[in-house]
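Sorry, any thoughts here?
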Amino acid sequence: MEIDVIDYTEMQLAQLTEAQLLEVKSAQIKKNRLLRELAEKLQQEKRRLINNGLFLSYTWDWTKAYWTRVFEEEIGWVRDGVLFQLQYTPIDFEGVPYELDFSLSLADRRDAVEGYYMSAYSTYTERAYELKKDEAAAHYLCEGYKSLLDYFLEQAKKEV
C-alpha cells in the first residue's frame, strides 16, 4: 500500500511504533475511500448534468470544483488527525544535541532543528548527511523532516 496521506520518508515510517503504523494505515484507507467516493460523486454529477443538458455550461466546472473542495477538506481532516497523533507521541531519544519540546508547533520545531544544524555544521552537504542519520529529528519534525532534508540537499547541490 502506498502511503501518501502524510509526507513521511521511508525512514520515518520505519521508526513508527506498531500502534502509530496502524493509525497511518487507517488514515490512508480513509483517504483512499474518500477519493473513490469523490470519483463516484463526480461521475454521478456529470451524468445528471448531461441528462439535464447543462454539461457544456459553466455548471460542470463549478460542480466539479465544489465537490473536489468538499472531499479535499475531509481528506485534510483525516490527514490532520493522524499527524496530530504522530506529532504528540513523545519518544525518549538519548544524546540528542537539541531540545525536544513536543509542545512547540511543527514550524517552531523545524526552526529549532534547522538552527542547530546551521550552527553545528559548516556546509549543506554535512548538514544533509547528518540529518539523514538523525532518527530523533525524523520523529520530532514529522512532515517537516522531509522538507528540511530536501532543503539541505538542494542547497548542497549549489555548493558543488
Observations:
- The chain has a mean pLDDT of 90.
- The helical segments are 10-15, 18-51, 59-87, 106-120, 124-133, 135-140, 143-159.
